[in-house]
Design a protein that fits this description.
The structure holds two protein chains of two kinds. By secondary structure, chain A is α/β, with parallel strands linked by helices. Chain A has 18 helices and 21 strands. In chain A, a hairpin with a 2-residue loop joins strand 20 and strand 21. A three-stranded mixed β-sheet of chain B has the order 3-4-5. In chain B, strands 1-2 form a two-stranded antiparallel sheet. The chains are: A alpha/beta, B mainly alpha.
Chain lengths: 510, 349
Amino acid sequence: MLLTPFEVIMDNLLEMRGICKNFPGVKALDNVDFYLNKGEIHALMGENGAGKSTLIKVLTGVEEFETGQIILEGKKNIINKSPKEAQANGISTVYQEVNLCPNISVAENLFLDREPRKFGFIDWKKMNKMAKELLDKLDIKIDVTKPTENYSIAIQQMIAIARAVDMSAKVLILDEPTSSLDDGEVEKLFTLMRKLRADGIGIIFVTHFLEQVYAVCDKITVLRNGCPVGEFEVDNLPRVQLVAKMMGKDFNDLENIKGENKDTKSKELLLKAESVGSKGNIKPFDLELNKGEVVGITGLLGSGRSELVRSIYGADRRDTGRILFDNNEVKIKAPIDAMKLGMAYLPENRKDEGIIADLSVRENIIIALQAKKGIFKLIPGKKQEEFVDKYIEILQIKTASRETPIKQLSGGNQQKVILGRWLLTHPDLLILDEPTRGIDVGTKTEIQKLVLKLAGEGMSVIFISSEIEEMIRTCQRMVVMRDKKKVGELKSDEISQKNIMSAIAGGVDK
Amino acid sequence: MKAKINNIMSTELFLPIVSLILVLIINIIKTPNFFNITIQNGVFYGYIIDVINRASELVILAVGMTLVVASSGGTDISVGAVCALSGAVACFILSGGEVSTSVYHSPYIVAFVSAIIVGLVCGSFNGFLVAKMNIQPMVATLILFTAGRGMAQLVTNGQITYIRVESFKMLGNSVKGIPLPTPVFIAIAVVILTFIILKRTALGLYIETVGINNKAAKLVGLNPVLIRFIAYAFCGLLAGLAGMIVSSRVYSADANNAGLNIELDAILAVALGGNSLGGGKFSLLGSVIGAYTIQALTTTLYAMSVSADQLPVYKAIVVVIIVSLQSKGFQRIIKEFKLKRKVEKVYEK
């Protein structure tokens, strides 16, 4: 194949062309192209399940791919069979969880498995000197003989990057490196990234944080459902467009879709949160909720949606602020306190935090009410069966019997069981965190209808979802989150796809 | 009929019961007099009575161990040492510090309650380390596993303390006019009482929930720390009770040998009962059957005149067989075998 002049000029470092990868039943990557130049920071973006991780795994040899080719510095058909081989080819990855040994020194971590030796023994002096030189070059000023765990996650990440770079990385992949860093640490990391860019290294930056993409990246490649949406210059792509691209909507078509007007019936205040926050998790926020109101919380993944509700419910630690419930200041130290006030929380991660897998449908439904009643007031067997049959009926749960272990049910039915668990406690405030994720369309609609019905009966609902249409259909008010911060609220008449996306994207709109 | 058999076979207690029957069948073949029961002085005698009697401490410990395993997915390896310690404390109180005594220096009830409290305190200590401090159960209970016997030695001053009073022997032997040894009744009482507590309160459900999914347990309003703590404390309390029986059997406190290695049998009893050592759902009855199985096995081997020091070898062989029979791997093999036969049948047609 002849090289086109374009390719010569562009100084292409890495090309991935027409990559396809199938998982059983799913097209994880469908004909994906990805180009990376020397001295470029390239963001890889997309919502959950978009194929970012799979693409990275294919590139680093963790997963095999079916068709397509990888070209590195003009060398064709590079196929990495393992991360080690990828590293030998100059492709290194630094993950969110730092892969360093915490209790050995920084220098040891930097030169692990390739220590300088003298007569077969490790030459400590030389190793420490080399380590210091390496870190000095990258403007990281720390004591290389100290154990690595003495340093913050940010510094550890930089050490991991230094190690990767020193092993002659040409392509550096940073997989969500900033998720556990605070603002100052992120800035330090960016300085390092810019320095590496100047040295001609190509950096692939995987992140959910929009601000960070605009702060440090040159180009953005967006994936959606395993398909490439396109490659864009950062300067030519307004935030709002990026959000629309990630969510698979054409921004200009969005104007028309709007929710039906759902008027708030009462103006009675149920919940008031004043500057509630938790360090590193979510910045202080205010929130008010009326009786019978459905409030949506929207934002991209990792924007702090779950953290917001969890800090109210007592599932996560809370450092600041106070919560008023029914006009009384309340102390919520653990979920049970919130439950006793009349709150219920359906968690985001059904499998990890929702279902109690080995227990029966019956036990899974009554457990929350039982916990509320206390250990000595066991709900009598007859009563339990009555309750369970009632909610199996109302929610149309498809199960062989009430004694079937919940793990044998389909995802949608499991979710209904958990919904039943909370409805049985007759809450005044129902918090639903991604209640429709990973369940079929029919069940989704049922759940949306149920939410509206409950609100009509006077229950307040906080609704979190990644699907904007769903939110528009159900919510009367919308709280917008970005980068672990509440950035705004949309009133009933302002709720539209366009407004929501603008708000999520924030910054300067065009 | 076939459906009925399948139904019986699918219950969780099926395999433990089969294991017990298996051990007993070996006896019918090898030692025909195994099931003979005679009455001497109004008391039943015989191998089978011996099994039920000797298994008592193990049954009591297995009950506690079941709850520990279910709630935390870990084991309490200190129960044997706690037995020794509680026995030592009781005998110390009764003997007033002397090596041997033929009269009580303090009322019996004081000694008995102290022994139980010692067990409860030890269990609470374990529970605090595991539940509150999040230390791995094996490591946390290793502390008392090693220190417990040392503390018992300190209490008894390194000697065996003898209590030569008839009433002290009643707990571990038999009471006049009652044809069965006392420990049998105590074990049965513990099992029934625990069963009632688990079924009449929500404790059983809480323990299973915490053992299966800690995060979900928290979000539905449970306090996993407290529930685990209760399980360990209760296990310690039962160890204290078992310790009293052990020392009453030999009317003495022997810091070195009381309840030696019994923690391993207790853990094994839980496993033989078809319970997962990973925690979660549990069957108390399964563990009890497991405990009787182990004791039946031990007595069987003695009846076949295997010497005490060779005993572990034979025991190990039988245990391997029983545990593999109950394992997931073996069940998969059976399933595949059944499937293969089904396919062959289809081909024949």
